[in-house]
Design a protein that fits this description.
Blueprint (H helix, E strand, L loop, with lengths): L1 E6 L4 E8 L3 E9 L1 H5 L6 H22 L9 E7 L3 H18 L3 E5 H7 L12 E6 L4 E8 L2 E7 L5 H11 L6 H9 L24 H13 L9 H30 L3 E5 L6 H12 L4 E3 L11 H12 L25
Parallel strand pairs: 1-4, 4-5, 6-9, 9-10
Antiparallel strand pairs: 1-2, 2-3, 6-7, 7-8
This protein binds adenosine-5'-triphosphate, magnesium ion and fe (iii) ion.
Subcellular location: Cytoplasm
Family: Belongs to the KAE1 / TsaD family.
EC number: 2.3.1.234
Length: 344
Amino acid sequence: MRVLGIETSCDETGLALYDSERGLLSHALFSQIAVHAEYGGVVPELASRDHVRKLLPLIRQVMAEAETSPEQIDAVAYTAGPGLIGALMVGASVGRSLAYGWGIPALGIHHMEGHLLAPMLEDNPPEFPFIALLVSGGHTQLVQVRGIGEYRLLGESLDDAAGEAFDKAAKMLDLDYPGGPHIAKLAERGRAGRFTFPRPMVDRPGLDFSFSGLKTYTLNTVAEHAQADGLPDEQTCADIAHAFQEAVVGTLVIKCRRALEQTGQKTLVIAGGVSANTRLREELEAALAKIGARVFYARNEFCTDNGAMIAYAGCQRLLAGQTEPLAVNVRARWPLDSLPPLSA
Ligand code: ATP
Ligand code: MG
Ligand code: FE
């Protein structure tokens, strides 16, 4: 089975062709970072318009690269939510229409299921069951995963998502959007021990997160050390980035370890943009080795939004016989644990 995957939930246009026998055949991504840069965040209307511009050329590109004609495609999978409603509508309308025109089924895929399954695209994929830490721009969730579509939410952020906290801290330090990679780079030059930021909610039982207090702490620290231009000196900025990253990573590691211990699982999957963070990977590897558990993640380009994860999720659901009617339904909000299991 060969599936075309379309991702347009936010500010990246992602396309891919996945084949159940041969694996990932081709993928392409256009990131709108430059489109939104001067606004310091994603402008929904501009995102929708840019998806309109990029979708068809990128579909042609992945089909040409994989030497695949429409007759060789068995289904079209598109992101149906959660995300920006206009951006979702673009991918959904194009995906649904292509499927109709080609006489094949379409599948509306949950964006976070896509992220969660992205590590399956790697050479040594994790095996079910596992615990998943979803850490992206809009989500911070711990999920118990028995199989595809069998998700139990164990905990989540009560306020900001981890990626959102990275983005906001970056803004305070006058770094570009999206801030995660910039904070990580600046933090390499930061000195350990200059600042210690609070690790939110780690002393409380349970598996929920909170990052808004850390954000305020960062803002206050920046203000305290600000010079005439409103920013601390370079070294202090690096020290703040370092302390901030250590606090986020430290919090995530403690909760992941707790989730594994509480459920007796030995496999952790991390997914979403923040799972590209090197410090998070290192710290998790070290902490999990102590309890005989292992961590799995996707290559960096499949941690953030991409079409490959949607094509993969679509292919698994197609193989299980799932398809959907002609209506185009997208959802700005969509609880992950409301998805049907594969056997349903
Ligand atoms: P969602 O998936 O919840 O709808 P999203 O699609 O915007 O949100 P992703 O594309 O998965 O999120 O990830 C983007 C986020 O990941 C941004 O907040 C970005 O700052 C963060 N990020 C990317 N790389 C890194 C990194 N190396 N370290 C920390 N954060 C990172
Ligand atoms: Mg993005
Ligand atoms: Fe995402």
